[in-house]
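Illustration 12: Fibrinogen C-terminal domain-containing protein.
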Amino acid sequence: MFPSLLATAGGLLLLFSLSSAGSHREQRGDSSAATVCVANDGFGMYCPTTCGVADYMLKYFSKTNDDLEQMLIDLENIANMTQDAENRVVYMKDSMVAAQKSITPDIYIKKSSSMLDDVYRFEKTISVQEQQIIELQNTVSSNERRMSELKQLSLQLQQKCSEPCKDSVEIQPISGTDCQDIANKGATTSGLYYVKPQKATEQFLVYCEIDAFGRGFTVIQRRRDGSVDFKKDWIQYREGFGYLSPDDTTEFWLGNEKIHLLTTSTTTPSVPTVLRIELVDWEGNKKYADYNMFRIGSEADKYRLTYGFYFGGDAGDAFDGYDFGDDPSDKSYTSHNGMQFSTFDNDNDRYDGNCAQQDGSGWWMNRCHAAHLNGKYYSGGRYSEKDAGEFGFDNGIIWVTWHSRWYSLKETTMKLIPLSRLSAGGQTTGVKEFGGLGL
Ligand SMILES: [Ca+2]
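Figure caption equivalent — predicted structure in token form:
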């Protein structure tokens, strides 16, 4: 039984170490790096989720493993004690025989009766210990059964993880250059779709929000619950991170390169794209802001943000900067139009320091911002300099033309739509549909 238990524990450890390599790279569930689960472009909710389940199981395994090891030690101790006791009984029986042979009957009877007492006592101990061993053996075999079931399940999950994401995530069959193109082709449900913008060399997955008016928004950013850490480096912001989900329940940054491709048209004149920003605060209020002729430059231009003009909305024009009253140049220091993208490891801001490092995000930093939708997530909204870490700056999810810089929003969405379709259902109708807030 011991060898088989050891073998099982060894197998578990192996299983644990094999899978923990994957889970480490998947730490926090939001790594954009290629993982064991992801077959192609790094998005798709279910593969990482499957790993999440596996991680959970592995945690459980680890505990079971510890328990089993402890049990193994206990069993060995008991076995040793039992062996000791048996040895002593054998020794005493031998002694009795020896005594019988060599000692006079009177002394023998005295000695032997005391020895017999000892023998009975030890035999009793042995029987108790044997009972304990049987109970432990039962526990071990029941644990072995459970472990074997878990291993089976884990193998199934690993099998699932090694399959391409598209096999387990519901991806809609229609594809197009963007979500509006997909909606134009007849898609009526929001979900995951493949898009291939004109300049793209390969298709990639996006979440399309398709409404009752046939408008197809391509979602490029989503904050919902703080489950994804947005403090990422240049490459992660370039490639995108977080998770796309068919039911829009997850947080992500689609990736600067993809946003660049989605906002770069090959036609002349170019097709104007509107960036719609939707915001939700902690009281459940919803507001939005639209920017027309929105565009993200290439990586060579550090994914520079440009837009033609603020196109309306009730959240106000925070991209234009804000006069905080701290400095005469506040507003020009905090406007975003024309800013290059910065991350902590790629500082392209207009500040002597490093805005992205100080505020723990990737964003079109000026010196630094009046809008900061990739900021740190603060549950409840209100936070202070003390909460903001070593630098103490306003690093939350900010849109200062609505809430102050010390109020971090609960939810954000950044999404794209061709200008021609924004008002397809009626601009006012569309606005009403979003939170019932008309212009
Ligand atoms: Ca700088």
